[in-house]
């Protein structure tokens, strides 16, 4: 019924008149060609849409997988927010899988539309050839008819001319100098002209009959036939376009619904929670508690032995008798909160300073006159750990100055020992005169020093923050002293090299003179916060700054890559795939302590700038990695240095992917 209803348009008088004219073939052919062009454009659109969907799915899958691996390695899934984020990344992987399914469906649809276009185009050409052939048959018949008419008219004209000559008088028969033709000749000419005219007339009638037959066949059979074929092909193309458009809309709807159910399922469960429901188990307090406990366990070995929260500072009793009490200043009261949260670096730095004799004399002054003060601290202070017995041999009585220095050293050792053990003040003791005289001899400083060293080595963790030196110091100690994120010597050297030495051939490879490097080393050792403002400050020798910088990193008490992170960087360099090696190096970098992270970030950005000018300075990524690999590691084997050099190459090549450039 729909086909018959659509065919009614062909019975419209105006439409029928136009289509059955000579314009009908070109109009119908152009109509089919426009429909086929739409089909071709639709196929191309679906193909490009599938390519975009595939590329989007690959990018989404890649970034979700990369972030998922990195995030799982750096963050424990036991805490609530990382667990929620991991779920969301897994949802992104499922979204990528849906996009791959959508891409395959779109690609299949595009191929089918393109095949349909090719088949319909072949049908169009076939119908057009049939119509052209029939139109040409009619035109050929008309041409032959016109030619036969022309021949008949010519024969008729010759016959009439012959009759006129036969009926003319004798004077009229003479033409020019020729003799007039006889009646016999004229009769013969008449018969010949009549025969030609009759033959032309018969041929003309035959040609006219053929033309009429061709015309009737064209108008009644062939034109209606190819008009219906063109119209049927048009309806077929339109139906296919509508079908594929609805198919495309259905694919988009299905893809959107599937993604929507992933993002926000109607019935959330443990397997499909969606983005919003992934935060249902978020517990900030539990996460904070877990983070503090885990971080404390990881950083237990890096604790400062002079931590204020674990140190009890007390003043020792006066050790010089009543004669010196008048000149002692008032005692200093130090209150320590039970749960300290923050103490400035300036206040904590005072805990490591040695106490002078002036402060020692003012400690623990007697509260009442009834208490007796011992003339020496040998019996007043008892160390928390036993001291080896003193030799019973007598020695000459020390002078007042010697006794003063001995007591100060003994008290300083006792107070310094209290950084890890609680030292309590003992009450004054009452001695008999004999005991008092015998106890006035203090223990030997050598014995106290050896005891203090043994007690510190046994009871306290290793001391890593030594702020008294630059070369050979611990990196964290340098940054605490300078109140910065990157050591000043590193900043000064790199800034001068970037200003004046980026185009210097062989930078970091060509050595400088030892005298210039030694002079710069002494300058920074005396004043670690030295500022380099111009090349005159370092003798116009950029290479000396490069050697000084490498010497600083080689002599750190702990390498820039700490020992506990050593294997992470070696294993990252052993990864064959470059993308996975980059991700492994990125994870290892993010696990570094803050001091090491900020410093290696600064030096890596500096080396990346050196590499950008490798066409001039001849220092490629490989050359820089060969030089800096052994510089940043200590006591590494040749295979380990080779692996770490590949790590350095990744850091330089992907510098601004791994680090943010401010």
Please supply descriptive tags for the structure shown above.
Rho_GTPase_activation_prot, 24 helices, Phosphatidylinositol 3-kinase, Chain A, 662 residues, Substrate Binding Domain Of Dnak, Chain:A, Domain 2
Q: Judging from the principal axes of the Cα atoms, what is the shape? A: elongated
Largest sheet: none
Order of helices and strands: HHHHHHHHHHHHHHHHHHHHHHHH
- What is the CATH-assigned architecture of the domain at 2-274? Up-down Bundle
Strands, total number: 0
Which CATH class of the domain at 2-274 is shown? Mainly Alpha
- N- to C-terminal distance: 73 Å
Portion of residues in helices? 55-70%
Q: State the CATH topology of the domain at 2-274.
A: Substrate Binding Domain Of Dnak, Chain:A, Domain 2
Unreliable segments (pLDDT under 50, ≥5 consecutive)? 318-468
**β content, as a range?**
under 5%
Question: What can be said about this structure in brief?
Answer:
The protein is 65% helix and 0% strand.
How would you portray this structure in words?
The chain has 24 helices and no strands. By secondary structure, the protein is mainly α. Helix 3 runs antiparallel to helix 4 (80-167), helix 18 packs across helix 23 and helix 20 crosses helix 23 (638-653). The longest helix is centred in the N-terminal third of the chain and has 88 residues, at 80-167. It starts with a helix and ends with a helix. The model is unreliable at 318-468 (pLDDT under 50). Residues 473-659 form the Rho-GAP domain. Residues 299-462 are annotated as: Disordered. This is Rho-type GTPase activating protein Rga7.
């Amino acid at each position: 019924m729909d086909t018959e209803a659509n065919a009614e348009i062909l019975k419209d008088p105006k439409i029928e008149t136009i289509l059955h004219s000579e314009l009908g073939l070109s109009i119908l052919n152009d109509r089919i060609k426009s429909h086929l062009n739409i089909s071709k454009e639709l196929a191309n659109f679906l193909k490009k849409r599938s390519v975009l969907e595939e590329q989007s799915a690959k990018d989404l899958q890649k970034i979700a997988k990369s972030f998922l691996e990195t995030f799982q390695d750096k963050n424990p899934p036991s805490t609530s927010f990382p667990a929620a984020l991991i779920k969301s990344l897994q949802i992104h992987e499922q979204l990528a899988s849906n996009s791959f399914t959508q891409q395959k469906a779109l690609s299949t649809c595009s191929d089918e539309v393109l095949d349909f276009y090719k088949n319909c185009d072949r049908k169009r050409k076939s119908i057009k050839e049939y119509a052209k052939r029939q139109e040409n048959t009619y035109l050929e018949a008309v041409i032959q008819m016109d030619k036969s008419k022309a021949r008949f008219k010519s024969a008729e004209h010759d016959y009439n001319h012959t009759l006129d000559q036969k009926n003319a008088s004798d004077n009229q028969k003479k033409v020019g100098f020729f003799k007039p033709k006889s009646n016999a000749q004229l009769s013969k000419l008449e018969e010949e002209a009549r025969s030609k005219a009759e033959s032309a007339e018969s041929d003309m009638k035959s040609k006219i009959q053929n033309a009429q037959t061709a015309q009737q066949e064209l108008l009644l059979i062939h034109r209606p036939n190819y008009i219906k074929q063109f119209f049927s092909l048009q309806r077929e193309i339109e139906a296919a376009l509508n079908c594929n458009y609805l198919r495309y809309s259905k694919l988009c709807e299905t893809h959107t619904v599937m993604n929507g159910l992933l993002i926000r399922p109607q019935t959330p469960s443990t397997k499909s929670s969606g983005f919003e429901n992934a935060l249902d188990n978020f517990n900030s307090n539990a996460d904070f508690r877990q983070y503090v406990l885990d971080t404390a366990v990881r950083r237990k070995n890096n604790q400062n032995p002079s931590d204020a929260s674990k140190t009890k500072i007390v003043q020792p009793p006066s050790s010089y008798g009543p004669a010196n009490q008048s000149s002692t200043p008032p005692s200093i009261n130090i209150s320590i909160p039970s749960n300290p949260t923050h103490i400035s670096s300036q206040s904590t730095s005072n805990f490591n300073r040695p106490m002078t004799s002036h402060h020692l004399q003012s400690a623990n002054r007697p509260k009442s006159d009834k208490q007796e003060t011992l003339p020496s601290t040998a019996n007043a202070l008892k160390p928390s750990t036993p001291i080896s017995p003193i030799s019973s041999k007598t020695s000459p009585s020390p002078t007042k100055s010697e006794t003063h220095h001995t007591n100060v050293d003994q008290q300083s050792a006792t107070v310094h020992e209290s950084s890890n053990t609680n030292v309590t003040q003992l009450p004054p003791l009452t001695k008999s005169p004999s005991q008092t005289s015998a106890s006035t001899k203090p223990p030997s400083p050598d014995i106290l020093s050896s005891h203090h060293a043994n007690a510190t080595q046994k009871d306290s963790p290793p001391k890593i923050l030594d702020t008294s030196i630059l070369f050979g110091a611990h990196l964290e100690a340098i940054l605490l002293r300078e109140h910065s994120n990157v050591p000043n010597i590193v900043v000064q050297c790199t800034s001068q090299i970037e200003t004046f030495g980026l185009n210097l051939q062989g930078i970091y490879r060509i050595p400088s003179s030892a005298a210039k490097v030694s002079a710069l080393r002494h300058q920074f050792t005396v004043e670690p916060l030295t500022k380099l403002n111009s090349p005159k400050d370092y003798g116009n020798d950029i290479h000396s700054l490069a050697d000084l910088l490498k010497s600083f990193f080689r002599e750190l008490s702990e390498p820039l890559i700490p020992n506990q992170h050593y294997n992470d960087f070696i294993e990252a360099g052993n990864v064959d795939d470059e993308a996975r090696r980059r991700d492994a190096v990125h994870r290892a970098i993010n696990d570094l302590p803050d001091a090491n992270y900020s410093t290696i970030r600064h030096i890596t950005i500096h080396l990346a700038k050196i590499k950008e000018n490798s066409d001039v300075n001849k220092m490629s990524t490989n050359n820089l990695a060969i030089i800096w690999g052994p510089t940043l590691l200590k006591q590494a084997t040749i295979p380990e240095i080779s692996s770490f050099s590949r790590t350095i190459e990744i850091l330089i090549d992907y510098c601004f992917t791994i680090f943010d450039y401010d």
